[in-house]
Known about the structure:
By secondary structure, this protein is of the alpha/beta class. 34% of the residues lie in helices and 22% in strands. It has 3 domains: 2-92, no CATH class; 93-122 and 175-209 and 252-329, Rossmann fold; 123-166 and 213-245, SIR2/SIRT2 'Small Domain', CATH 3.30.1600.10.
Amino acid sequence: MEETILSLKGEGASLRIRGERGGNGWRFRREGGEWRGDLRDALRSLDPSCLAMRPVEVHPFFSHTIWEWLKFASAEGRQIDGEDWERLLKRDNPVFRAASLIRDARRMVLISGAGLSVDSGLKDFRPPSGWWRNIDPRTVATVDALELSYDLFHEFYSERIRQLRNVVPHRGYAILAEWERRGFLACVCTQNVDRLHHLAGNRTVHELHGTIREFRCHACGAPAAEEAFLEKRKCRCGGKLRPNVVLFGESLPSEAWNRSLGAIREADLLLVVGTSLQVAPVNQLPFLTRGKLVFINTEETGHEGRFDVCVRGRALDGLEAIEAWLTGT
């Protein structure tokens, strides 16, 4: 679906650059023109006279690229009315405001959910189009299913495990790991069980729902290998093997919960990325902080009014856009 990237209006004239996100990223075109793979190319193709027009809409994800284009135009001596541009690209731009809060934060903490992993190729189970529409997690990811319908339980988790084999962290994960290295990010509190944060390089990660990359016996708790689970072997004690994830109805790991709660209460900025805020008790955590709240998510959740800044869109796009303002790239 095409989206407006930049819209300009003048006396009796208008101009619009459109963008479209596909499986290989974004492409851009002046309305009615040819598609280009780089927004900078589309901007450079515009007639300089368009800068006399008034900007009426800017896509937040591409605000930094447009800002850099304007700086170049100003350096060449072209006349630009800066007030409207300043408002759209900075003051009213949630991406710029999120970047400003991150830059100024002394202790930022991240809460991440399944939406962060979508651009790595993992299926998001929450939206209506996701995998959960075919399989109700309340009938599969439960202790009852493990104990009474083990074949279904095993098939469900085996598919999820196999799906992970060719999955690698996308650039958004790398940005989060880099923020930790640069001192922007104190720790990660994640609902995800895929360990992509670890693979990307984050060091302080609290796994609130456990991990699907480790296994144990449901009866005695003894650790087990992935191969043993996939082959449906039993533990030496005769118990059934399971991933080390939190099933519906089980308590969250106390250490991960307590460390997350402590970090969130100490944070002056909480960044919440890719979660629908539907699953208790993690959905309570964002509102236990006294710090600022920034939310990046594709779909509306009904909680947006409780955040200081909301960035609507895919997690990867939002993180890349924020990083552009932080680093000037």
